Protein 1
Amino acid sequence: MDAADAADAAFDPWSPEFVADPYPAYARLRATGRAHWYAPARQWLVPHYDDVSALLRDRRLGRTYTHRFSHEEFGREAPDAAHEPFHTLNDHGLLDLEGADHSRIRRLVSKAFTPRTVERLTPTVRGLAAGLVGDLVAAGGGDLQAMVAEPLPVAVIAEMLGIPREDEERAMLRPWSAAICGMFELNPSEDTARRAVAASVEFSAYLRQLIARRRSEPGDDLISALIGVAELTEQEMISTCVLLLNAGHEATVNTTVNGWWTLLRDGVRPDPGPEKLSTAVEELLRYDTPLQMFERWVLDDIEIGGVTIPRGAEVALLFGSANRDPARFGPSAGELDLGRADNPHITFGAGIHYCLGAPLARLELTAVFAELLRQAPGLRLAAEPQRKPGYVIRGFEELLVEV
């Protein structure tokens, strides 16, 4: 086995040991090449920061290919017809749209994430964070994920969308999201697909009913605003709302929990001052990236490090590896530095698919960390946490703490 083969063998996204700590394998990938063919997932792995950053902006790649090619022309099989509800929902959302449709919907939705909008949300987010952390402290501890990390971003997005607090379906937002996001893992099982399809059907049906209600009883919310936009179809509205929920909380939840696991494990705390805390949050976003991989289709032949990757191939941009690349972050790339000033991490992506909700995610994260530092200065682990099996969206089952 040569060095490149050995590095590829270290990449095993279905192994609990790898998921627990993929970073040594990333280092081997970076040391042995810029592009590695990984047969089990039929993808090219790209581990270096400069390559990942450039390819995120390269329009020879796309999140989809159907705006330019049929499945047959691209050498790919059409999706399983039984999975159609998931693909209909996913394919009409910003994450997977390209070309004119992406530009049109991003322009419309971006109005909901202006700096002024985020500033207006600041008191609400801080109030929610204070209340959730207060409940955790009053209980003497508990599951930081279920009691604080998950409810905050879900509540914020639900308020933005205008999902009534009294609707029973509000409690399903997180389970629906988790089921749908299961399809973004590598080679999802048929059981995962069935759960995603069921969640897609149920979530879409609920949003269709809510849109109908808002047509007759508009409110001061995003769904009501989108209804008045003639350029959006109802399916695009539904897909946009689902994507905003899914993308609007997964990174925040996992950065909060991964971040506190790191702080508690290493016995360190950020400085609670606003500027220093903001710097520390950026470092936690870099150090243990919540979204480890972002995939793109190759629409026209590209070359990486002397390797030609042909049209029709898929590349796996390894965010977790790129964010610890010593070529960009120096010899301390593998270390946690809560005061790291030069930190152009790519956790929120780059190019036309850069995360619209990044400013809101930063607001939520700084609010939660500030409240935990203020109200629970003695926070400590109550049990060793167990990782979820997923690699692409990497997090824990729970994080039990005491205060």
Note: The two ends are 50 Å apart (CA to CA).
Protein 2
Amino acid sequence: MTVDFTEPGFLQDPYPGLALLRRQGPVTWHEPTGRWLAADHATAGAVLRDRRLGRFWQDREPAGVWEPFNRLHRNQMMENEPPVHTRLRSLVAKAFARGHVERLRPAVAAEAAALVRAAGPRFDLLTAVAGPLAVTVIAELLGVPVADRHRLRPWSAAIVRMYEVSRTPEQEAAALDACREFAAYLADLAARRRADPRDDLISHLVAQEGTDGQERTDGQERAGGQERAGDRLSGDELVASAILLLNAGHEASVNALGGGVVALLRHPEQLARLRADRSLIPTAAEEMIRYDPPLHLFVRTAAAPVELAGVTIPAGGQVAALLGAANRDPAVFADPDTFDVGRDPNPHLGFGAGLHFCLGAPLARIELQAGLTALLDHAPGFELAAGPVHRPTFVLRAYTAVHLTSGGAA
């Protein structure tokens, strides 16, 4: 039986279909997408960690049409392998670390509390709390001015639609427009930070930028295949890195909080446990990511023939790690279809694994915990006011609306 990743029933609840894939075998061929699928925890983890399987960006054609999209992706760490990935990630991580993400915890908690208090007795969790919180945190970290922040989520939402299994021509056109506008905006902001550095991530990324601000050739980046000491970001790499952090930094956070709160409300006994014992908030946040992860599929390409669970993936073949399926594997998780706020250990793959493990995972955890705490503190009786509305996508699993009642203010 072949699972249809675009079928409405599957998009509403993909987990029975993912369980079917897992039962069919660790690796199965999926004709509609032309990929092998890794559906159990061990094999999906191996796909993410095996250095013979990589991210090798191929420009979309025709190149003249797709250049705005291609430029952002060929210059970001997620679409490259070592040594390019190593150089980009080390430079971005160096700048990212200067922000000392953990020091943001009090400010994130205060912002989450303020948003919930201002939301009123009935509100949409996504537009009133999760979205503004994620945008504020990542925009503050990068140094995007307050007056411009409303532009970020529409740009990001348009671009990430390109990662789905199926797209419409209108969605593709909107993604290209967003790429052009987002890149132009970040390039302008970087220019302002060169002239007037601040204590923000864009300024730190500028400090890691090549002096000419121009994109280097492969030969200029590495001599003899080795990384060059003191290598820096090109102008295109700076923009692509900032957009990757912005997109990943709030798309995943918004969707994780939305899906996690829905899961919590559908398991009232677990919500009661959490209300009674706030020390469970960190493990509850991890369970939200495991139970209904915001990212369900991560594709890698074989640089040479690779054997996975007895199946040979030929050179050039693509294999997709199904993170949602891996996170419900009964070989790893007891009662995997049960939501358990105290689950420990919880070796989920929601943030990926290996070389491409999510750089922003610590910040995402802080945001998720802050959002949960704010709801428990300032909307203590929160419950669903209406059925949550799913976005009809699979790769990035999300709701378009999660309407809540606060149950009274604390």
Note: The longest helix spans residues 235-265.
